[in-house]
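#help-structures
NK: newbie question, is this the right format to request a structure? protein is Methionyl-tRNA synthetase
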Amino acid sequence: MPWCCAHCLRTPAYRPAGSPRLPRKGRQQMTQRFLITCAPPNPNGDLHLGHLSGPFFGADVLRRYLRARGRQAVYVAYTDDHSIYVPRRANELGLTARETAARYTRRIEQTLALADMLPDHYSHPHRDSRHDRFVRNHFLELWKNGTIAEQELPTPYCPSCQVFRYEAYLRGRCRFCGVPSDGTYCEDCGLPQDPGGLHDARCVACGTAPEYRPSRRLVVPLSAFADRLTAVFVASPWRQRVLDYVTGLVEQGLPDVPISREADYGLPVPLADWSGHVLDTWFSGIFGYLAATAGYGAAIGEPGLWRELWQEPETVIVHFIGFDCSFSHAVLWPALLLALGEYQTPTHVISNEFYNLEGEKFSTSRGHAIWGSEFLREAAPDAVRLHLARTNPEYEKSDFRSAEFDRTVNDVLVGTLESWAAAVFDELAAQADSVIPAVESTQGSPTVRALAEDLPDRLAREFEPDTFSLRGAAGTLVEAVGAAAGEWGAAPSHAEPGELAAHLELLATLAAVAAPLMPGWSAHTARQLGLRVGLDGLAWPRPGLPVLVPGQRVAPRFQRLFQARQ
């Protein structure tokens, strides 16, 4: 069982101990509050390393960084229980859709716990009535204000199965880029497949080519929002590929987006004459975020907090997504928020590309996958986190390669970082009985002193939402570790007190600024240095203020956290 208890994993929504209460106006003056989300996973399987490299990881790192800087941040998420992928998986397993969603939601949470990536609040729509209520209420408001219209559209129909087919039950080629695609959004280029537009489509259940029959659908005509969406894009520091994507869509003309389906699984359309139709989760997902935020507020005794966070302009809303979710998070959902007129649109949309395995796409059907729950029991979570950051698919597809991961562990973490830390501890024990020497701030290697002074600002640039980069942060960290070890190796066999103090201060600084990427190693090292570790880890180092206190005793030997891989 991971560090969170079995009871927590059984509750309808999970909030780790120590999650902060966000101060409300009137209790504390605030300039900004951060609300962080990640794209909801389908509870139709466990998480593999490709999943863990993306939105879950980015959202967790940003939250840890912001809290270390003393900023108010909350990270909420939920599983897409109403997704059409759930009943398809249920049919394969011989379970009900609800049983399938419950099984994999639990596994997803357990894997996130092993990776130290659990949100502050994780909502289960099947077990939290807020979700369905939020979707219904906001749908009805959009219906009443004219945002949603009715159209008859050509819709794929399988003559063999005698049902309309959508998304998970339809497979073909993207009509824009030609790569294999399901029936709604292309995973590669992210563009929506118009009704009837998927090339070489086949029913997933039987392989039959569908017919296209007229079907009554509810749609959101996005063209009415083109000017307002453009104003949002222009003012937003989103990642460039997302900006290029949405700008191109506006220039081409925004489509009418179907938001309902004739199906027997999902949240029913809450209109009297729409029996047998359900709402598409690509439409309702934004209200899942609102409901999860409301769940967080209820868990800490502040039921009105969700409105403050979503309505006040001081809130910085950050969405972490895979690029294939760009249409929903960067186009459709901002349009819905604008149509409602009372909510803030996202400040940041931080996307990532696909993470492959040994040069090929992860494939559970072919057994080409590394499951997070298995790998994280074999390898140290912080080693996995650092490597996922070093190889992160921020702007282009990248790979997990086992040999490269072994080098991260053996060369960077064991051979460099912890070997340097152990040598500094051993020398301090031999010279000063493990007591930090009191020396002038100018003593010791100027290079090491400069590293300790500059590193917090350098890492902060990589962690700030405007310039967020897991790769940049990992690269800066690894570079600093290599420089520190190099300076130690170049020092005399018996380091002077000033040299010892400089290296200890750099090690303490590293422990603080590495925490967003390697929270376990950070806390482990900080405690050995005699530093107090709070619920949110170490505070971010302040310019001109040392992290360590002279005269403080540290552990007699550095206890390593990482083990070499064979």
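mod (FA): yep, format's fine, and the tokens are attached above. The mean pLDDT is 92.
NK: thank you!
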